[in-house]
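hey can u check if this looks right to u? its 416 residues, i copy pasted from the old doc so theres a chance i mangled smth
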Amino acid sequence: MRFFLVQLKESFGFALQSLAVNRLRTTLSLFGVTIGIFSIIFVLSVVDSMEADMKEGLSIIGSDLLFIQKWPMGPEKEGGEYEWWKYFQRRAVTENDMELLRAELDHIQSAALQIKTFHTAEYKNNAVTNIGAIGVTYEYNQTIDLQVEKGRYFLRDESDGGRPSTIIGPALADQLFGDEYPIGRHIKINGSQVEVIGVLKKEGSSLFGGERDLACYIPFTFAKRFATDQDEISMILKGKPSITAEKLKGEVIALFRGIRGIRPGEDNDFSVIESSMISAMVNNIVGVFNVAGMFIGIFAILVGAFGIANIMFVSVKERTNLIGIQKSLGAKNYFILSQFLFESILLCVAGGTIGLLLVFGLLSGLNALSDFHFFMPFSRIAMGISISVVVGLLAGFIPAKQASKLSPVEAIRSKG
């Protein structure tokens, strides 16, 4: 066993010596593998970052909510066309719909309405255009996690009576007030004076979140005063812990059809969206990017593997005399085989390591230039190294096998 390990060590040394002597060839050989590993790991790391960001954003919504609105997320029939003209004619969700549904269904823990409009917020000489002014009913913060850091949430009288008050995001507060304390101040939204009663906790920018930081929440009744028919109204339902979202969805559809007076056989004039559907959509997007990343990277890796194999054949040709001398001195086939396999694997691992370092550097640069957080998971580092080792084995095996089968006499006589 000790003799075997010594021979492996010597094989490893021969491989390193060969790579060190042929520096230019080694550098050129690394290029293909470097590009391949960089392509795969960079794309997959970006996708991992996007997935983590999306899931963090969706965690605010929760996994046990139902959204009832007239517009669906996509075609209501699998593989069908998005019939916007049909959805456009549907009736908007109303407060009366929500109250009737709550009265008939005991499984609902909380229910709220929201309507999103876009307006300009003004304070003194400061103005922020196109902010999301979201009108919500009183139980909104019981259905969706709305964390107020300064001030307070709406009182029921303020909410039901449509009092001109607002809870604003921290980014909006900074742009309007600067260092001035915002609570109790009045801002203008759509020309109406509104009192700031709260400031939300900072959420940070993300693909599915961050809009709260530059938004304001106002009572639903107040928001309806300057809403248009194009502004979507959504009912948000949260079921009790004892009922699944799927069961709640079935009961809600049946009861809401009755409330709307929809006859058997007629299509719904509303859509029910589960928060899990949003998660499924995110997973589909992530899956597409993963496949695309692997597809691009595999082609680059194949080019690199053929380059490594070609270099290894050249290396075998150059060292044929040396192989003959080693075999005449008693070197076994596995000793020769291991030399070239080690050389091939070292080439690929070095190229892969450079690719990983390039990924790390590029992701760090992107983090410095944007608020989005990119990262490279350890699993992707391990994946990159593993792919490099496998590619090294595959690319170097045939040349190494060819070298190990050489006849000592013919190898010594070879002119290399």
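The longest strand covers residues 108-123.
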